[in-house]
Amino acid sequence: MRIIGLCGSLRAASTNAALLRAAATMLPEGAVLEVAGIGDLPLMNEDLEKPAWPEPVQRLRRHLWTAEALLIACPEYNAGIPAPLKNAIDWASRAEGIGGVTAPAGEARKTPLADLPVGIIGTSPGMLGTARAQQHLRMSLQSTGARVMPGPEAFVGSARGKFDAAGELTDEPSRAAIGRVVAGLVAWAERVRD
Ligand SMILES: Cc1cc2nc3c(=O)[nH]c(=O)nc-3n(C[C@H](O)[C@H](O)[C@H](O)COP(=O)(O)O)c2cc1C
Q: Coiled-coil ranges per the record (predicted)?
């Protein structure tokens, strides 16, 4: 199973990126996780959809079209979705044809997010561990037609001290929570596909 990861933080030392790295070590046999960059996407602007989506948008969409599941690491900015992540979702939510064609031949879905199984994880220094941003993200994804996994959820709060000097997630309960989301997402994606 091919899982695409998106990280809502563009920071080089992002703790949310570290969650995705941890998740990549917990995949069952046969599953791969590839993180797609979103830092080079222009800000959403419908004027940029003609004559064709900008190249970084097309690249993101092609990544998503190849995915059987999506794992999003969502930081929390002012109790909501960080702008780079919302921007990526907005570009991916646009129907094929508006800015060209990025879907593989024969694909019936109109957008790469439609019916795509999605799992969500997140970490922040606050106690709630991105709970508010994740709720915001769920609401937004609902309108894209993505199949967001109801649970398990993973909120890695009070993040300081849960990562080592190299920036890797070391806190065992947090790693276990990420592992539950990874296993749940693989099972969810198989169920949604059948
Ligand atoms: C503009 C801004 C707003 C933030 N708002 C919140 C917030 O509402 N809740 C929270 O827990 N952390 C908040 N933070 C702190 C981030 O969660 C923290 O910087 C976190 O490390 C970001 O994730 P990263 O390590 O993956 O970059 C905010 C940070 C920024 C830059």
A: none
Here the CATH number for the domain that contains residue 63 is 3.40.50.360
Convert the pLDDT of each residue in 49-102 to its tens digit.
999 999 999 999 999 999 999 999 999 999 999 999 999 999 999 999 999 999
Contact 42, 84 (CB under 8 A): no
Asked if residue 45 lies in contact with residue 192, where contact means CB atoms within 8 angstroms, the answer is no
Cβ of 126 below 6 Å from ligand 1: yes
Q: Choose the residue to mutate in 6, 11, 124, 162 for probing ligand 1, maximizing ligand atoms within 8 Å of C-beta.
A: 124
User: Which residues form the domain of 17?
Assistant: 2-193
Domain count, the chain: 1
Contact 131, 155 (CB under 8 A): yes
pLDDT per position as a tens digit, 139-172: 999 999 999 999 999 999 999 999 999 999 999 9
Q: Is there an atom of ligand 1 within 6 Å of 82 CB?
A: no
Which residue carries 């998106």 as its tokens? 6
